[in-house]
Amino acid sequence: MNDEIRRLTDEELGEFVEIWLSAYPGLMPDDFTEERKDKLKERWAQTNNDVDTMNWYGYFREGKLLGGMILIDYIMTFISITTQVGGIASVCVDLIHKKEHVAKKLMVFSHEYFIKKGICLTALYPFRHDFYAQMGYGLGKKMNQYSFEPKNAPKTSKQNVTYLDSSDINLLLDCFNRYTSQTHGMFYRNERNNQRLLNSYKVVGYKKDGKIQGYMAFKFKKLDNFIKNNIIIDELIYETPEALSELLTFVHIQDDQIHRIVLATQDDHFQYLLTDPRSEGNGFFLTSQESNLQGVGIMYRVINTQGLFNVLKEHNFGGQTLNLKLSITDSFLPENDGSLIVNFSNGEAKVVNTTESYDVEIKMNVANFSSMIMGVIPFKKLYNYGLADISDQKYLERVNALFLTETPPKTIEQF
Predict the structure, then answer these.
(1) DSSP class of 371
(2) pTM of model > 0.90
(3) Counting CB atoms within 10 angstroms of each CB, which of 89, 216, 261, 320 has the fewest?
(4) What digits encode the pLDDT tens for the residues 138-165?
């Protein structure tokens, strides 16, 4: 069969949209008209042509499009440094051609694509976690969904809270990227991203001294009648306690008309801000009452282990000094399978010749290694679960300290 994967033309994007809509019907509202479909095609074609960091690729057999994906070049804050990350989005296959390994071949291509660019890490949102785990993807940080009454948010002042619009786009972008520079796992944005945010949400911000120091992007959701609504907060960014306090005051004063505030956040401690953290579900187990829902979303994958340590050469790995033999099983990407020796000197990492001696060896698959090095799960926990091995237990605490991060990765990017 004559199969190929290549970048899509404007005309072929129309076919891609049809496959994408069939693969992800739940993403589209019931009233998704042909006119709206045409606008989506037009917007994607413009992005495919004008944005160098975002490209649509298709899988063809005998000239027929069977599936495709979007490949995105991101810049991410990785613990203490910034690095490129490959985003893989909208992987889709024609319904007739499922179970023909189209998705697998698209994923193989995507890894090769990013490796050629010198990128060592990829990320995606899975439709099924087990499917991508088989391809070496490890779980990311869980997301929390809180549902609370507005009156349970704190109330102080709101004198610096104002609506934001297109005239604020540069200040909004500055705020977001300052926050990103201080937050492990966050992807930097550009003006186009923030214009889309302003077009899609109501946005209020904390503006003081000519700077936006925090903002909240939200929508209303109608419930059983026109006077009963929830506020759905999809983004809450703040740089200072004062910004957070005033934005939550804005939430508090909506109590007269809003039933519940629904907030998605990777902050595991948000309940400390609420006078009553109980959720609307009122679930009860053991002696605990439900405060929030949790879900697993984003997954990460190291596609070049040695290259990643080179990227992290200026990061301090817990101040540790030891020679570590790292043995990674990676059946999906053979060139990333095998062992390497990393010399850690006062926390600075350097990959050395594999024939050199080492103090201790650890073994795990690439999915669990990816989650560990991202700071999602400690090595010690992987070891206790039987998901990693160590040659000498006396090094357990020191190896654990190598890969600990102050906070797990956070991201609100939906791609």
Answers:
(1) H
(2) yes
(3) 89
(4) 999 999 999 999 999 999 999 999 999 9
